[in-house]
């Protein structure tokens, strides 16, 4: 059993990771929480019967805590991760890992120096539909992979004090906040890293500092292509959180899987046999689509169980600091592409 402390409990930690992950995972236990807003920390402390702090050092000095989950704004990840590592705590850091590559590298170095694990929170990898699709692609069921698309959008109007709307605090808007999830899930499913990117960003609706709309085109190392679209400018009910995978033998179309939720639907379209060119471009009828009937699992519970298992068995996590560093490299390349209006090579 691994005892957890949580740093920053006012957002995703309170909504998802504490109630669905840390307190539900079979191998973890919540011990303490800390937040700059002491009243928020106390509220959650009372709710879960744990100690609440305002001072991060006091939480980190608690010798009963084995690991910390960092869910603060991006600009704080670097300092808090290194401080936690120096106190001997394993670190599970929310995406995106840090504000730049140098900070990521220093976080990795700190985890190595202090012999602790470091992982980054890309929980969509644990969606059971995504894992099934990855397995199908590995088995060649879709033939040669041609293209993938991932969409994640929401309505995010101007909010006073919102750190995601301040470039200095969040590093960017829709792209860095939601696009990093989309890029990671395509790389995971396609089992291939992004090598080149071309990106467009703009503020089409909201006039805050960071972009409210972004589009990224990717060339992966396996020569397949990717499309990533993210918007803070589309109403929630109109955003279907689409995942599409296309291969030479068929396609898979998902709705709602690129999401904080753990469910969603997926339909498989497979050509039964090879055909010649059809000038009429006849499509498979929707009735012939095969629904992938896969039992959902809670992605927050599974990611905490996974990292906790890595700690207990001394296994290097797959979603490591190096994975987080790679995503920062890709995102930085995307912003550079948008600024310079050209394709950017990542490696």
Main pleated-sheet profile? 9 strands, mixed
Computed Rg: 21 Å
Average pLDDT score? 95
List low-confidence stretches: none
CATH H level, superfamily name of the largest domain? Dihydrodipicolinate Reductase, domain 2
CATH class descriptor name of the largest domain: Alpha Beta
Describe it.
- The structure is a single chain.
- The protein is of the alpha/beta class.
- It has 2 domains: 2-122 and 300-319, Rossmann fold, CATH 3.40.50.720; 125-298 and 329-340, 2-Layer Sandwich (Dihydrodipicolinate Reductase, domain 2), CATH 3.30.360.
- The chain is 35% helix and 24% strand.
- It has helices spanning 12-22, 38-48, 56-60, 74-86, 101-113, 128-138, 167-170, 174-190, 299-313, 321-340; strands at 2-7, 28-34, 51-53, 67-70, 90-94, 118-121, 145-153, 194-202, 213-220, 225-231, 242-247, 250-255, 265-270, 290-291, 344-345.
- It has a 9-stranded mixed β-sheet with strand order 14-13-12-11-7-10-9-8-15. A 6-stranded parallel β-sheet has the order 3-2-1-4-5-6, sandwiched between helices.
- Strand 5 (90-94), helix 5 (101-113) and strand 6 form a beta-alpha-beta unit.
- Helix 1 packs across helix 9 and helix 4 packs parallel to helix 5 (101-113).
- It is globular and about 70 Å long.
- The model has no long low-confidence stretch (mean pLDDT 95).
């Amino acid at each position: 059993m691994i005892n957890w402390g949580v740093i920053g409990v006012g957002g995703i930690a309170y909504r998802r990771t504490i109630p669905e992950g840390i307190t539900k995972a079979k191998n973890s236990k919540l011990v303490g929480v800390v937040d700059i807003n002491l009243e928020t920390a106390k509220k959650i402390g009372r709710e879960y019967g744990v100690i609440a702090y305002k001072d991060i050092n006091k939480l980190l000095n608690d010798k009963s805590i084995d690991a910390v989950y960092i869910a603060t704004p991006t600009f704080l990840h670097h300092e808090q991760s290194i401080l936690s590592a120096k106190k001997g705590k394993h670190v599970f850091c929310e995406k995106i890992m840090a504000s730049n590559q140098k900070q990521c590298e220093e976080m990795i170095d700190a985890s190595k120096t202090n012999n602790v694990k470091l992982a980054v929170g890309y929980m969509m990898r644990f969606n059971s539909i995504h894992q099934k699709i990855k397995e199908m692609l590995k088995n060649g069921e879709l033939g040669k992979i041609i293209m993938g698309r991932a969409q994640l959008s929401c309505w995010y109007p101007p909010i006073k004090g919102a750190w995601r709307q301040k470039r200095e605090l969040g590093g960017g808007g829709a792209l860095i906040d939601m696009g990093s999830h989309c890029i990671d899930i395509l790389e995971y499913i396609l089992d291939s890293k992004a090598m080149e990117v071309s990106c467009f960003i703009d503020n089409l609706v909201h006039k805050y500092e960071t972009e409210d709309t972004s589009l990224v085109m990717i060339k992966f190392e396996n020569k397949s292509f990717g499309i990533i679209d993210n918007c803070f400018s589309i109403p929630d009910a109109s955003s279907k959180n689409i995942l599409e995978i296309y291969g030479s033998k068929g396609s898979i179309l998902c709705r709602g899987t690129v999401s904080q939720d753990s469910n969603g639907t997926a339909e498989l379209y497979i050509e039964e046999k090879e055909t010649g060119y059809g000038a009429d471009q006849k499509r498979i009828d929707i009735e012939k689509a095969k629904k992938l009937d896969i039992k959902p699992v809670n992605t927050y519970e599974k990611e905490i169980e996974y990292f906790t298992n890595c700690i207990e068995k001394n296994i290097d996590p797959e979603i490591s600091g190096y994975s987080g560093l790679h995503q920062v490299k890709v995102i930085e390349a995307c912003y550079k592409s948008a600024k310079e209006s050209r394709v950017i090579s990542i490696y």
